[in-house]
Amino acid sequence: MMTQTRKAKSIFITGAASGMGRATALLFASRGWFVGAFDVDVAGLETLKTEIGPDNGLLLELDVTDQVAFEAAFDQFGSITGGTLDLMFNNAGTAVGGFLDEMDWDDIMKVVNVNFLGVMIGIRAAMPLLKATPGALCLTTSSSSSIWGTPGISVYSATKHAVRGLTEALSVELKRHGIRAADLLPGLIDTPILSPALRAMAPPEGMWRLVPPTEVAEAAWAAYHGDKVHWYVPEGLKEFDLEATADPETVREERAALAGLIG
Q: From CA 180, how far away is CA 52, in angstroms rounded?
């Protein structure tokens, strides 16, 4: 695989083998970008390679909690792109359901390590390439659960609140390097990570409708070409964000009733 010229922009995607990451890889590849696709799902990466073409991307197994492996992945990616990276997309995530006081500690730490520590490891590893690229964007998948914590997946929600806070801070901190920072806040996305209970509750329209992963991919594209910090998918979720900020007690009671925790 030959070194890319600056004519081709590049994106590095974690959690790229399925769902939102896969849809994003396919979209950016179709629009002429060089795609770095990384995941623990090797079989998924192989089928993705067939779809985007082996010359249009670097597809490798990667555990985002492994700092050494992450740095090695960037070394290999940078050797192909000429030491540049236009968009770092921290998308890898996992969810384990349950009430906090009833969950196994190993499950709690798995969610924290992948969803938050993995994001910080990835951002730090990406910095040399991002610094070398004018207009670079550090983009992370947060969640509508970062607007208001979702009962039953409280640890997942906590990690997404952390990602949102980190993004807001980095949107200021990284200005000193000329790097932008933003996050995506997807609602109910039609991927395997969505629980059957939440899937069954999705209405046919509105902010809590079931959204295909391609809409998240389009939001990632818009984020690179835009200047907002938070990108809601669908956009109507911004109304819920405003409501939760203005009247959290009402939202608390509505969420508790929806979860069947109060009569």
A: 27
